[in-house]
Fold this sequence. Notes:
Elements: H1 9-15, H2 20-31, H3 35-40, H4 48-62, H5 67-71, E1 73-76, E2 79-82, H6 95-104, E3 110-114, H7 120-128, E4 133-138, H8 141-153, E5 158-162, E6 174-179, H9 201-204, H10 212-220, E7 225-234, H11 240-249, E8 253-259, E9 265-271
Parallel strand pairs: 3-4, 3-6, 4-5, 6-7
Antiparallel strand pairs: 1-2, 7-9, 8-9
Amino acid sequence: MEILAGATIGALQAGLPLGPLENRILLCHALGLTRVGLITQSGRALTEAEAATLAQLVERRWNGEPIAYIVGKREFFGLDFRVTGAVLIPRPDTELLVELALERLPAKGRVLDMGTGSGAIAVAIAHTRPDAAVTALDVSPEALDVARSNAIANGAAVRFLESDWFGAIEGEQFDLIVSNPPYIAAGDEHLAQGDLRFEPSGALTDHADGLSALRAIVLGAPAHLAPGNWLLMEHGYDQAAQVRALLDARGYLEVQSWRDLAGIERVTGGRAPQARSPA
C-alpha cells in the first residue's frame, strides 16, 4: 500500500488497514518508538524514508506474513525471543508446558527439551530456575543458532546439542523431559492457512500421521528418565486421547492431560515406568 510522507503517527494509527494492535506494533518497529513514544509523538509527520519503510512492513503483513517474522521477535513467558523463518513462532499455548515442567522439576534438576526450535521452552525454564541444568536438542543447525542467541539475550544457561531426538545424549539421564514436537499430520489443511504457511514445515508436521515424533519420544524417554520422573509433551487439539494411549501402552504411570486457557487438552504426560525385566 502507499503511505505518504507527511502523514502523522496519530492518523496512521487509526488509518492503517490492519488491526489496532498490529498497526501499533508495525509503527513502533518502523519508527523505532515505544508505545509511549507513539502517544507522545502522535502529531509527528513521517519522513519519506519512514513512510517507505512502514509501507513495506504493512504490505508484508497484508500478504499474510506473521508479525513475529516481520519484526523478528515474539514475547513468551515474559521474555523476548528472536524469531526467524528457521523456527516456529512461540505461542501462548506452550506456556502451559513450561508451567507444568516448573511444577515438576526438582531442585538442581536436569531437564531435557526435545526439538527446542527458538529455545523458548528451554530458555524460559532456565531463566526461571537458574539452579536447573537444562539441555536442549534440535536437528536443525539454523534453529540452534537462533536458540543460542535467545539464551544469551535472556541470560539463561542452556546446553544446546544438534540431535535427531535422542541420538546425541546416549547414556545421559534427566529428571524431566519436555517436548513440543511436530504433530500436524501430512496434508492437514491448517498447514496451508494463516501463519503456518510461513513457518518451517519440518517443525510443524512429521510428514506422516502426526504421531510419529510423539511415538519416538514416548518410546525413547524411559532410557533417559529414572522411574517415576515425568515426560511432558505438547500436541494437537484433537490428539490427547491418542497420546495417552501411547503412554499407557508403554507402561507410564499417572498418565493425564492438561487443558490450556481455551479449555483444549494441550499437554499430555506421565511418569516413566519401571525398567522392564529381560525376557
